[in-house]
Amino acid sequence: MLNLNSVMIGTKQPVMLAAFYEKVLGKPADMADQENGFWGWQVGSAYLSVLDHSEMGGNTRDPGRVMFNFETSQVKEEFERIKAYGGAVIREPYEIGGGWVATLADPEGNYFQLVSPMG
Description:
This protein has 119 residues and is an alpha/beta fold. The chain contains 2 helices and 8 strands, in the order E-H-E-E-E-E-H-E-E-E.
């Protein structure tokens, strides 16, 4: 059985993305090496990482190809909080199957979702 260890976001603007995800996650990075362009946050049982990557410039070309989900029982409230930090609204909160989902994008256009806990 495989275990998801981490999701890494490559960027030429790691300081900017790290600052955004610090606000989204409500805490400083658990691991940070600014000299080498790396920040990582423990989120549940996996890490979300921002990594300086020389070949990843500008906004993402296919932002919906890979999305990661943040689970919260307060989708609507978290949606408003993250929107205020500059998260771009892709889809307002909507109900599906008894739960809620909202889709936002970070400053480079990478999509992520807020989702209700699964029953």
